[in-house]
Amino acid sequence: METKELIWSIITLSEKELRRFMRIWVQTLVPPAVTTSLYFVIFGSLIGPRIGAMDGFDY
Fold first, then answer.
1. pTM for the full model?
2. How far apart are the first and last CA of the chain?
3. In a domain, 43, yes or no
4. N or C: which end of the chain has fewer CB within 10 A?
5. How many structural domains are present in the chain?
6. Is residue 40 one of the residues assigned to a domain?
7. Is residue 15 part of a domain?
8. What is the pLDDT of residue 59?
9. What average pLDDT values come out for the chain (59 residues) when binned by 10 residues?
10. Is 47 exposed, middle or buried (0-12, 13-18, 19+ CB in 10 A)?
């Protein structure tokens, strides 16, 4: 493959993936944010006080 063809291949693939991401950005970004928030709420607020201190540090 020539250099020009390689560059066009990369540009084409990048544009295609960017269009796909823009179509489904909510499905891509929201679930990790919700999962992280739930982790902090469940383990930090609910379970954290029950664990107590470990080596001088609160959970």
1. 0.54
2. 56
3. yes
4. N
5. 1
6. yes
7. no
8. 63
9. 94 97 94 94 80 75
10. exposed
